[in-house]
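Quick illustration, no need to memorize.
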Amino acid sequence: MMSKKIFIIGFMGSGKSHVGRLLADALELEHFDLDYLLEKEWMRSIKDIFHTYGEKKFRIFERDILLSSPPSGVFSTGGGVISSPGNRKYLKDHEVIWLNPPWEVLYDRIKNSNRPLVKKNNKEQLFQIYQERLELYRQVANFSIDDIEEDEIIRKILKLIDK
């Protein structure tokens, strides 16, 4: 098959964790959520890590978790994992699926959430962050999926990676 290391990327609210679990089950691989691994490592919530250390340090911690990730599995990433050039370089060596639903769908999913970036930015500012990340997602993704129905997303991914 492939490298057996598949990363799910996308903006906040794109469904990376949920789709990652479903895809891992379909491929009979282990699922890892990098945010969860980061919380476990630091024994704090993502929100608390962001608040205590700031986004710059958070991105360093996130990079460390990414680079030390297990040798195989399906990995759901944080939405900003592509912010770091080193992370993008690392991801390019693996299978990367970009969940890319329309902006309005994403915003509807995140607008009432407790996420640090949502709390400190309004809709226009979040849209700006989204716009800035689009090219970065494009740079590392092997495939882009813009569907929003989970069954269709999994079907397309399995077809794309030729399972």
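The longest strand covers residues 5-9.
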